[in-house]
């Protein structure tokens, strides 16, 4: 069976977003313009230096996505509204969105299909595993720290890939907030000019 993986960029003090998040500023007071510019500058300012980490971000067989990362789901599941990711999202696989209201699946250009799941994180993961296949298809959990913390608390993450950016936010949505103590086995660590990439095996 494939693994359940989470890639997440955090500040040096563990925040994946600042306070005052909005639809227009999904990363809130992130030390930049709120669009993730400072937290995620390593992807765009020095892409060649971080090519391996960038290329593996969207290689899973299926994805689970937090509702905030998808964007607000409008009441009528408006055909003009495709979430934050445009008409051709970068995932190219089934994406199971944690949501409050069920909708029909939404196929998108490029092979992404959104499925809204209303019966919890375990159900979303089970559907993603089935979609990824019974072989070695991995599932990636997408979303900010709140979503990841739910999966960590439930013991459902196998591998945690952190991209640690050298500045502090001081306050915000923090990874490991409210999560019981975990054992982590460090698998890899690589420092780049704007970020340090660390991969951990989450010990049961």
UniProtKB/TrEMBL annotation:
GO terms for molecular function: 5-amino-6-(5-phosphoribosylamino)uracil reductase activity. Residues 1-37 are annotated as: Disordered. One of its GO terms (biological process) is riboflavin biosynthetic process. It comes from the Bacteria. Residues 4-194 form the Bacterial bifunctional deaminase-reductase C-terminal domain. Gene3D superfamilies: Dihydrofolate Reductase, subunit A. Pfam families: RibD_C. InterPro entries: DHFR-like_dom_sf (IPR024072), RibDG_C (IPR002734), Riboflavin_Biosynth_HTPR (IPR050765). This is Dihydrofolate reductase family protein. It comes from Streptomyces phaeolivaceus.
């Amino acid at each position: 069976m494939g693994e359940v993986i989470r890639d997440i960029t955090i500040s040096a003090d563990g925040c994946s977003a600042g306070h005052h998040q909005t639809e227009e500023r999904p990363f809130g007071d992130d030390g930049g313009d709120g669009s993730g510019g400072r937290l995620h500058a390593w992807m765009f300012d020095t892409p060649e230096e971080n090519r391996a980490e960038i290329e593996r971000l969207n290689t899973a067989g299926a994805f689970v996505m937090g509702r905030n990362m998808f964007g607000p789901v409008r009441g009528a599941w408006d055909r003009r509204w495709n979430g934050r990711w445009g008409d051709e999202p970068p995932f190219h696989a089934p994406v199971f969105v944690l949501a409050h209201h069920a909708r029909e699946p939404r196929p998108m250009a490029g092979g992404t299909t959104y499925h809204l799941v209303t019966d919890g994180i375990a159900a979303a993961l089970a559907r993603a595993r089935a979609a990824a296949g019974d072989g070695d298809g991995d599932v990636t959990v997408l979303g900010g720290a709140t979503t990841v913390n739910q999966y960590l608390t439930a013991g459902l993450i196998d591998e945690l890939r952190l991209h640690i950016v050298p500045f502090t936010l001081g306050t915000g949505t923090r990874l490991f907030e409210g999560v019981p103590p975990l054992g982590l086995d460090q698998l890899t660590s690589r420092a780049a000019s704007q970020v340090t990439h660390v991969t951990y095996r989450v010990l049961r």
